Amino acid sequence: MLKKFDKILVGLLPEKETALLAVSGGRDSMCMAQLFMESGRDFAIAHCNFHLRGEESDSDEALVREWAEQNHVTLHVAQFDTEQYASEHSVSIEMAARELRYDWFAELCRRHGYYAVSVAHNSNDNAETLILNLLRGTGLKGISGMKEISEVPVSRQELEGVRLIRPLLQFSRTDIDNFVQKSGIRYHDDRTNAETLYKRNCIRHKVLPVFESMNPSFLSTFAREMRIFAQENAVADEFFAAARVRVNAVVHPGECLRINLDALHEEKHCEYILFRLLEPYGFKGRLLDPVVRYVSDDEVVPGRVFEAPGYRVITAPGRLSVVPVNVDVPYDESVQVTGESTYKIGIDEITVSCSPVIGNAVKEAIRLASEGVLVTDSLALTFPFIVRRWCEGDWMRPIGVHGRKKLSDMFGDLKVGIDEKRRALVIVREEDEKTAGSHVAAVCGYASGRFYCRVDEAVALSSKSCSMIKISLLNG
Question: Whose CB has fewer CB within 10 Å in the chain, the N or C terminal residue?
């Protein structure tokens, strides 16, 4: 094993450089430390005490300290309050430990000039990761496996660019067990590794043995397939980079991403492009499926909203927009509409146009509303008028309702959410505009992901209407 390890290390670590070994005290990392020692390479050790397992955590630290002292190896130890970090950053304990250790490893490399962080992932770990990613639905990238050389996955941008190497990736857990026993290496087993409640442990103890019974050399088969997947992923990356330009996927003010829906429809591999565009915002698997169905529909209806943790995909005529869930929308955003054109109100846009009324005016108003278009009688609502955010106290006289009604009450009836209410747009005649409590001509927005609009009886289309103003909310 040492001979093969030395050969692998030649391609990962220049001879005169020093590696920083992430050593937990477990079997794999203690094996890696011993292999580095026997190879004669320069290295230091970093150990994290996450204080999650009481005396066991302290015992792991003591073991690593003893080994480093006996072998005269530089040792760095960090004490982390992992539970507090998880609480403060609203992440799981597992994610907290990951961010804490990798950020610290990167800091040590920057501070002491270490060439790379070395971790003890082996071929079994790689196979487990492939299966986990298949379950999560991560695409080609997720099933391409871990690479022997990559970057430390840090949470802070200023720490990016630090190398990560995996010199044990070509060795199986059996290889490591045999070397550890032969060399008499002391290590500690984390008792949670045997608990099958965790997905990775379940795959390790229940799934992989089935593969091994069907194909004793399945690890080498997996490794070969992952190398091919990695090459296919590189080809797919090139395709996606060109496709992103073709569908005009760009950042707009107030939006994470805007996609040209018409251009997307022209693409042969529309679903794959959509997956790659939306996956960074949490849209994958069951959360992506409804977006794909929507895009694939021949009759795309604007005004739909799809949600993933922290983000929304909002549909509008000819495009999809990805926006953060908690967009801070100022209450004082407004625009004066002076004629037919497109107007921006903060992160939203409206298109205003005029057209004659053909046929039944009321039916036409209902049809247009289903397409995300609000309509008024052009003789009753004349230019210029104001479009702004809703304010407390605004009211109107909706069609079919006796007397005035506050918009706040209407929002309750329509089940308009807090974020959606903040982004509601109202149309106000200039003579009705006040500092608060205005009589509004119309209101529109989104309620539970669907477009709604309500028009005051004074400006609504009627059987006597000859022409109308159409107001399309392009981004809700």
Answer: N
Number of domains in the chain: 3
Give me the domain span that covers residue 437: 334-473
| 449 CB-near residues (< 8 Å, 6+ apart) | 303, 304, 305, 306, 307
Q: Could you tell me if 82 and 50 are in contact, meaning their C-beta atoms sit under 8 angstroms apart? A: yes
DSSP reduced 3-state for 290: helix
- Is residue 411 exposed (0-12), middle (13-18) or buried (19+ Cβ within 10 Å)? buried
Do 211 and 303 lie in a common domain?
A: no
Is-cis flag, bond preceding 317, omega within 30?
no
d(CA 476, CA 473): 7
Alpha-carbon Rg of the chain, whole angstroms?
Answer: 30
- 86 and 172 in a single domain? The answer is yes
* DSSP per-residue codes, 144-164: S---SEEE---SSGGGTT-EE
Q: Show pLDDT as tens, one digit a residue, over the chain (476 residues).
A: 999 999 999 999 999 999 999 999 999 999 999 999 999 999 999 999 999 888 899 999 999 999 999 999 999 999 999 999 998 888 888 889 999 999 999 999 999 999 999 999 999 999 998 888 888 777 788 888 899 999 999 988 899 999 999 999 999 999 999 999 999 999 998 766 655 556 888 888 899 899 989 999 989 898 898 889 889 989 999 999 999 999 988 887 667 898 998 899 899 999 999 999 999 898 888 888 889 888 887 666 666 788 888 888 888 778 888 888 765 555 567 899 999 999 988 778 899 999 999 889 989 999 998 888 999 999 999 999 999 999 888 999 998 888 899 999 999 888 887 777 888 999 999 888 875 678 999 999 988 667 899 999 999 999 999 999 999 987 54
Contact criterion met (CB below 8 Å) for 397 and 458: yes
Looking at residue 422, which CATH number applies to its domain?
3.50.40.10
State the pTM of this model: 0.62
Q: Determine, yes or no, domain membership for 197.
A: yes
CA 170/CA 165 separation, integer angstroms: 12
Which CATH number is 108's domain given? 3.40.50.620
Choose the final residue of a domain: 266, 294, 324. Answer: 324
* DSSP for 215-238, written as a single string: -TTHHHHHHHHHHHHHHHHHHHHH
